[in-house]
Amino acid sequence: MTEATSQSIRLNDGNTIPAIGFGVFLIPADGSTYTAVKEALEVGYRHIDTAQAYFNEKEVGEAIKDSGIPREEIFVTSKLWIQDFPYETAKKTIDATLEKMGLEYLDLYLLHQPYGEVEGAWKALEEAQAEGKIKSIGVSNFTPNYWNRFVPQFNVIPAVNQVEFNPYFQQKPLREILEPLNVRIEAWAPLGQGIVHSLMSL
């Protein structure tokens, strides 16, 4: 494990999250996800990020199982997609995800988008956290407007908000809202999605 992959950040619920994670967005569930996650773990990654909408949770779980690494040393994130946001559906989906991945708990579970029955879905996450099925709960793609619309209704403040965050998009208004609450921004596209700027084009 490298120094970079071993660094961690404390969340507002007392749990810690590895500073660098390996995401499996767009990796197909044809054995490719299994191979990618297995190799990522072998080179030192200890945070794997998947989602219901990626359709590869099962292969992530299989790779974790076959890695030989103790479960408590691997931080696993997944996300609930909007069609399963109704409260009762969300509760069933959390259990289905755990079963599909072969895990007793998730380290972090997020609402993937701020649309649909957000309040019901968040209630299901709060209850799953209280039951020990999820250690930390958070949201994803919540802009300042959506944060101010929904989060004041929550009983538990999200531990993270996973959003696009990079040198080209620094999310300053959002950071002003999250910092007083000690909510961590978790970056997707931290390298700017391959954006290249040259002096010739400026």
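[next item in queue]
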Amino acid sequence: MAAWAMFQARFGYPPAVVADAPGRVNLIGEHTDYNEGFVLPVALPLRIEVALAPRDDGRVRVGSSGFLAESPRIYQLGVEAPGAGWLDYIQGVTATLHQQGVRLRGFDAWITSRVPPGSGLASSAALMVALLRALRTALALPLDDLALARLAHQAESQFVGARVGIMDQLIASLGTPDTALFVDTRSLAWERVVLPPTLGLLVIDSGIAHQHAAGDYNARRAECERACALLGVPALRDVALADLPRVEALPSPLRERVRHVVTENARVLDAVTALRAGDLARLGALCRASHASQRDDYAVSVPAIDLLIALAEAEPGVYGARLTGGGFGGAIIALVEPARARSIGERIVAAYAQRSGVCPRLLLPAP
């Protein structure tokens, strides 16, 4: 049921506004955004929708279906406190707006989602951007799309405590169909790159959920910060391919973490060139190298993901495949011939379920 209808059913009156935002899949450029590097995400047709109506007091009532099924939860503006599960993403938005001096009113909201949580497709960023879009319209807030991305990133990284980069929020706010968003996360300069019609995208949720606020993701960021201190640079963006011999002198696992980020930044730049030229063989090779680097140097893959990748790459018509998202589970992306995408995806899903005992989901092409 759509968010508008769910809002009406649960609160007994119609919403004032409905807004949405997309999940994302990252073509290439993993764990580079919080190192001030380059990324190349794509907005998905899977979206999170927020129906909302302002209140005359400072109370917030919010419920969800599809994101995480819940009865409406209630909190008071100005006394937000983390530790309330999925509600932290809502509280984080209102607390961050308050910190920025934005005057808010209470509101009722209902959330519906087609972006599965824990699948590595940025459901949290889509939720926050959709909520901010709804609040912007309902309360006439003077915020542009880049400001929304910045606010959502601040809310997730500071209030929720997941030390993510800004890629997810940028693509949720700026993404458009049939394009990739090439972003320099240091300057926040961005450019839309048209996807060639000969490129099909296949996205499969492994069924192994991850959680960004958990320790593994934040540990990788801390390792990058320690490596920066040893190398004497402000961010790993400042380490070039020519510096890799110096990187090898770092202790393990820091040298492996740096090696991934440095080579991944180079792969993003090469991928943009390949995409513009329609060179899908080159793009596929870069994706395969990216996955190997995530598995071996950044250590964010897991056996279930590696199995999915192996099954994908054994299929004729697949140019390349890789883990997408923060890792430790989640989803894979495969670059495929468009006409064969669904049949290839269905075969991979069936083989994976038989061999792993885990129930995967074919997310793209969408049913």
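[queue empty]
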